Amino acid sequence: MIKVLIVDDSAIIRQILTRELSKFTDIEIVGSAMDPYVARDKIVKLEPDVITLDLEMPRMDGLSFLAKLMKYRPMPVVVLSSLTPKNSETALKAMDLGAVEVLCKPGSADATQDVSRSLVNAIRMAASAQINPKAPQPPPTPRTAHRETEPVAALATVRTTHRVIAIGASTGGTKAIEMVLRDMPPASPGIVIVQHMPEKFTTAFARRLNDICRIEVREAQDNDQVVPGRALIAPGNRHMVLHRSGAQYLVKIKDGPPVHYQRPSVNVLFQSMAKHAGKNAVGVILTGMGADGAAGLLAMRESGAVTLAQDQATCVVYGMPREAVKLGAAQKILPLPDIARGIADAVQEMEKAPKDKGNGG
Predict the structure, then answer these.
(1) From CA 289, how far away is CA 240, in angstroms rounded?
(2) What span, in angstroms and rounded, lies between the C-alpha atoms of 131 and 174?
(3) Is the separation of the CB atoms in 278 and 301 below 8 Å?
(4) Which of 216, 175, 210 has the alpha carbon at shortest distance from 195?
(5) Is the separation of the CB atoms in 299 and 270 below 8 Å?
(6) Which helix H or strand E contains 281, and what residues bound it?
(7) Who's near 97: CB < 8 A, 6+ residues apart?
(8) For the structural domain made of 153-360, what CATH number should be given?
(9) Any catalytic annotation for residue 292?
(10) Which one is catalytic: 8, 35, 54, 292?
(11) CA gyration radius for the chain?
(12) What is the pLDDT of residues 55-76, one digit of tens each?
């Protein structure tokens, strides 16, 4: 049984969440709190396994409370935030502080069904998450700043549109993706990314990464070209697939049913990578709950791509990588700090391989 404490200043939201979450037999709502001060006392008394946390509350805002909580009593936190650009930026800061997941707050009783399903999955995942993963978290480096070392110098001489890197992640993925992209030099092959995240949040996520990485990072738009030095992040609530037009790769943004309960889906992206990029691709699956991306990574491997998975020790949630490993989809299993080097080595080997006419060679 997962014991949950609901922290939200809205009595209506507390009632809705209590009602909806109580429908699940593996979740017990042990209490609720209208502000962080009440929450602090109830955490000590009730010892919940997971907290759901609003970010806009009286007496102390959610970010300040989260920072104190992670310093003095680290525990799994699922943030519920309103769907606005301002709140999206705040939600990303919450993930930097240690929140396991960020979800959109239900705007009305009519919107609770989808929210409750997502929230239940997030709570279940949070209950098993590593709150202090072993992977180091280096401070942000502005993309204009000088760096004396080049962690992936092997990519510095690669200037081709015929290599594509695809990355998929979910829970814990915002920090994992940041670590990988920060090590990518401007000459790196084009990168396409699916991170499970609500719409609007992906816009803020891409903007933040663009500010601290040496490559260009932006939220993908339909028909964006995949070119060296650019990373495209699938927009929230839309699938992203890779296509080829002549010698160029581009992405298509489309609707469609969720796959593995996700839209965007890592599996959808990876399957398109197998079809259109084949052995000119590198597939990377990072931390996250569930199985999204595992079958797609296998398809990539079978098409000749190099495939990598993050190891269990550095994952916040070892779900998606574990499923990929079980399928035999990952050629290499690497700790997060070594993923960028693994990509560089793979691309370097591709550049040494004889060119042919298949899949963009």
Answers:
(1) 20
(2) 14
(3) no
(4) 175
(5) yes
(6) strand 281-285
(7) 63, 66, 67, 70
(8) 3.40.50.180
(9) yes
(10) 292
(11) 20
(12) 888 888 889 999 999 999 999 9
Q: Given the structure tokens 């919450």, which residue do they identify?
A: 94
pTM to 2 decimals?
0.86
Residue with tokens 């399957």: 271
88 catalytic, yes or no? Answer: no
Residue 91, pLDDT score: 83
In angstroms, the CA 25 to CA 42 distance is 22
Separation between Cα atoms, residue 279 and residue 288, nearest integer Å: 25
* Three-state DSSP state, 76: coil
> CA nearest 116: which of 6, 17, 28?
17
Q: Of 116, 118, 162, 196, which one is the catalytic site residue?
A: 196
Contacts within 8 Å (CB) and 24+ apart, 64-72: 64/36, 65/7, 65/36, 65/39, 65/40, 66/94, 66/97, 66/98, 66/99, 67/97, 68/36, 69/43, 70/97, 70/98, 70/131
pLDDT at 110: 45
Please give the Cα distance from 220 to 218 (Å, whole number): 6
Q: Which residues of the chain have pLDDT under 50?
A: 108-111, 134-139, 144-149, 156-160
Residue with tokens 């560089």: 344
pLDDT by residue (tens digit) across 132-149?
A: 654 444 445 555 443 434
- Tokens standing for residue 262: 């996700």
The pLDDT value recorded for residue 311 is: 97
- Considering the candidates 170, 188, 265, 272, report the single residue annotated as catalytic: 170
Three-state DSSP state, 239:
strand
Candidates 340, 238, 225; CA nearest to 282 is 340
pLDDT in tens, 203-225: 989 999 999 999 999 999 999 99
Neighbours of 120 (CB within 10 A): 18
Q: What share of the chain is helix, strand, coil (3-state, %, to 5)?
A: 40, 20, 40
**Cβ contact 79:51 at 8 Å:** no
In whole angstroms, what separates CA 286 from the centre of its chain?
8
* Topology of the domain covering 2-127: Rossmann fold (3.40.50)
Q: How far apart are CA 233 and CA 213, in angstroms?
A: 14
Domain range summary for the chain, segments of one domain joined by +: 2-127, 153-360
Block residue for tokens 């994992």: 176
